Structure formats: structure tokens, C-alpha cells
Amino acid sequence: xxxxxxxxxxxxxxxxxxxxxxxxxxxxxxxxxxxxxxxxxxxxxxxxxxxxxxxxxxxxxxxxxxxxxxxxxxxxxxxxxxxxxxxxxxxxxxxxxxxxxxxxxxxxxxxxxxxxxxxxxxxxxxxxxxxxxxxxxxxxxxxxxxxxxxxxxxxxxxxxxxxxxxxxxxxxxxxxxxxxxxxxxxxxxxxxxxxxxxxxxxxxxxxxxxxxxxxxxxxxxxxxxxxxxxxxxxxxxxxxxxxxxxxxxxxxxxxxxxxxxxxxxxxxxxxxxxxxxxxxxxxxxxxxxxxxxxxxxxxxxxxxxxxxxxxxxxxxxxxxxxxxxxxxxxxxxxxxxxxxxxxxxxxxxxxxxxxxxxxxxxxxxxxxxxxxxxxxxxxxxxxxxxxxxxxxxxxxxxxxxxxxxxxxxx
Length: 410
Fold this sequence. Notes:
Layout (H helix, E strand, L loop, with lengths): L1 E6 L6 H10 L4 H8 L7 E10 L2 E10 L21 H9 L5 H22 L14 H16 L4 E4 L5 E2 L1 E4 L2 E4 L3 H6 L16 E2 L3 H10 L2 E2 L6 E15 L2 E11 L6 E11 L4 H13 L4 E8 L5 E9 L4 H11 L6 E8 L2 E9 L2 E9 L6 E6 L1 H11 L3 H13 L4
Parallel strand pairs: 1-4, 4-9
Antiparallel strand pairs: 1-11, 2-3, 5-8, 6-7, 10-11, 12-14, 12-15, 13-14, 16-17, 17-18
């Protein structure tokens, strides 16, 4: 499984995302051929090696006829392009006969942009005409990034916390504080941070286009997940630097463990000192029913020596936001901590053994698909049902199942 990780140490924009993909090995000519299917005119593409504070990177440009240049990192500098509504943009993408996954990701990205703009301006989504993101250059940026995910064979995408910037930016409606209102709306549910830019006026670091792409593509946010690193690419913005840092976006590409044993999961936790045992028990049930891989509660001593509990759950990265809602809805907590965990696991499969108490499934843990089982665990539900039906202890059924499983094959 190929993993892509965007390290947004200096923000992100659409052209920076595509530039990082090209720098990591995406074929420029093949990408250009795919983009021609959109049927758009009045533009040309360029990709060139540049340096940002001495670091080599790739700058991706969409050059618009009659425009003086394209800076995806500063949408205020774009020229007055033709405005397009969401339905027109989606129609262009869907009629282009792009790879299905790339087409679907691009449509999702633009739909999320439309929803954000509609909420910011308090209008119906069909009335939205994109100012900064509806022009040809940004349509190309978004579709190119989604094509890049497909063409690079990236199956899962993760992202670092996203810096937003601060200060002031010029927009179609006037001067606004950074980040732009649509960017803030798009970043709901994502991890954001400006820790590298404390006390400095930086302007806009992440554009609406960059925010839409990253929050559509990424399953989760945190440190670099476990992978066998294959390639690294750097995508450049137009400015040389931002607050003294290189104006770059880094993309790391790598493979999960060949045997499928390594992955990343999210651990959620909250400390509770004003919650009854019944509430905690119910919350655990709700988390497990909602798809948590595991859920548990641990006793602890909190501030002012108050006894309390830590409620925790382990889940797939893409399920984190949904399970956090259960924490907030079912407990009095005001916050939930997230921690991205690298995990190595055994491959799992089931076999069924015939015992004197009936068929019992046994879960096997294997280091590889053709290797011996390293662990064997009779399924509790099967054993409990058999014990009740035959009037014997649970332990007797478990022992019987393991004994039958361990018998030599005839």
C-alpha cells in the first residue's frame, strides 16, 4: 500500500501540491495529456526547478493568456478571470473522461469549496461563483493534484498540522485577516497550527484551494506515519520565503509493510472527573458500536487530587472526527486529544473447528500469509453460546476448541 504524507511546514496551495508531486516523480507530460481532456483553453503549463533558501524544488505554473503570472500561494494577486459556478465546474470535470478516482476527488474538492463559500456569504450553493478558485488556473491545480494521487499510485494520504498564517490579505470583497474565511471553514475538523510563526506577521500561508485539497485527500493529521520511504518531493510557492522559512511543501511517498502488517491508527482520549460509571460504560458501548477498533477506560488521579477516568478509543484515522462526536455527546468532556500511532499487527484470519459443543471459530494471528500461526484465540461469542447451550463452563469450551485446533491434520 502506497502512502503519501504532506509536510506543510510553510503552508500549502494548489500549485505547491502539484509541484511536490512532480518533484516526487509524477510525469509532467502524462499529467499535461490528462489535463487536456478538460477541454479548457487560454492557458499553458510549465514546471521548472527552482530554489527556495538554497533548497531545490519544483515550481508548477498555469500561465493564463493576458495574465502576468500565477501565484497559487497568494490568490489576491490573480488577475480578473472568468467566474464559474459550481455546477459548470463539476460538469467540466465529469465530462473529461478522467480516471474515476481522480474525477471523484476533484468533484469532492470543488463541492467542499462551494459549501464553504456558500456558508461564508450566506447564499445558496448554486449562487456561488468562485472568485479566487473558479478561474482556469485553479481548476487545473485541483484536477492536477487529484490526478497526481491516482498517477502516483497513492492509496492513503496523511497530512501534518496545517499552518494558516496571520496578518491581512486582499480579496475580491476587500481586505480580510488571514486565513481567508473560506479557508477557515474548510479547515474545520483538521489539525491546524502556527507554531513556526509565533509573533510574526506572515500573511496567508494556506489558500482555500490548498485547504480544500488537503482536507479532501487526507485521512488524518499528525506526524509522519510508518512507511518504507521511497521518494520525497518539494513543491515551491512563488515567494522566496515566508517569515524566514523556505516557501515549500514537502511530500513523502512510501510503502506500508509488504506483508500489510504496518499501518497508522488514531488514539482518542479524554480525562473525566465528573462522570458516573454508567455514563462511561455507555460511552464505551457507543464507541465500539460506531466502529472503534478498541475502547477502554483507565483510572487516574487528576489535578487537586481528584480521582477520575481516562476514556480512550482506537480507530481508523478517517473515523476520528465521527468518534470524537460520541465523546462530546455522551460525556461532559470539553476536549478530546488525538494521537496518530504507528502500528504493527499480525495478519488475521478465521478457521472453524468442530467440537463436541458445536462449531467454534478461532481467530489466527500470522506474520505472513504462508507462515505458521503465532496466536490462536477462540471467538468469545461462539464459546459463550456453546457453554450456555450445553450447560458447561466457558473455560471448558475454550480448552476444547484449542485442543481440537491443535490436533494433527489427518
